[in-house]
Amino acid sequence: MVDVLRASMKYIAFCLIYLWMMPSPALAAQVCVTIDSLAWTREQQNLVATASYHLAFSSGQNTVPTVTGDQICYNDPTFDVPSTVTTASVLSKIDAILAQRSVDLANAAVKQQAFADEVTGVTGNDLCSAELSEIEIRIDNRVAALQAQLDATTTATEVKAHIRNQLYPALGTVFKRIAKCLRARAGSGQ
């Protein structure tokens, strides 16, 4: 009987030491709040977990909450959950997320429009949508034309005039078109 009692005491001591040294998530303190999202749209309800995470993060805790229906739970929170995570605060954060999403979509639309305007706009900058092989052919043709004009010059004055009046403006035009394409792709219209 004494051996059984000793074995039981050892087992209990081992369990207590194990529980003391190895904290288990099952023993973690969980704090839950319930919000009223009955009148919310489906999109708002889908963002409850994201908004709850943002609220916890802004309170100093980087923990993803468990959301089940209208109940939001945090394991071992380091902030005051009931005063931080309320129906109003969650809805406010959701509205901020949706507003940012709208701004991002509007910025993407502006960027796309700037690119479309550059391709099909007044300048008709077709370098933006041309294939590389097409661009190479155009460059080769333009270089050949400029070279033929340069070959036709006979004096240093004519060469200078050709470079000043033909070559430099052609290079400037190409660089401007490329820069406009790059800016249009980046979303800056200027």
Provide a descriptive summary of the structure in words.
There is one protein chain. This protein is mainly α and 190 residues long. It folds into 2 domains: 21-99, no CATH class; 109-186, no CATH class. It has 7 helices and 3 strands. The protein has helices spanning 2-21, 42-46, 48-58, 81-84, 87-120, 132-152, 156-186; strands at 30-34, 66-68, 71-75. The protein has a 3-stranded antiparallel β-sheet with strand order 1-3-2, with helices on one face.
Strand content: 5-15%
Mean pLDDT: 82
SSE series: HEHHEEHHHH
Q: List the total number of helices.
A: 7
Count of distinct structural domains: 2
- The geometry reads as elongated
Helical content stands at: 55-70%
**Oligomerization state of this entry?**
single chain
Keyphrases for this structure?
7 helices; elongated; 190 residues; 7% strand; mainly alpha; 2 domains
What would a concise description of this structure say?
The chain is elongated, with a radius of gyration of 35 Å.
Q: Strands, helices and their partners?
A:
Elements: H1 2-21, E1 30-34, H2 42-46, H3 48-58, E2 66-68, E3 71-75, H4 81-84, H5 87-120, H6 132-152, H7 156-186
Antiparallel strand pairs: 1-3, 2-3
Helix pairs in contact: 3-5, 5-7
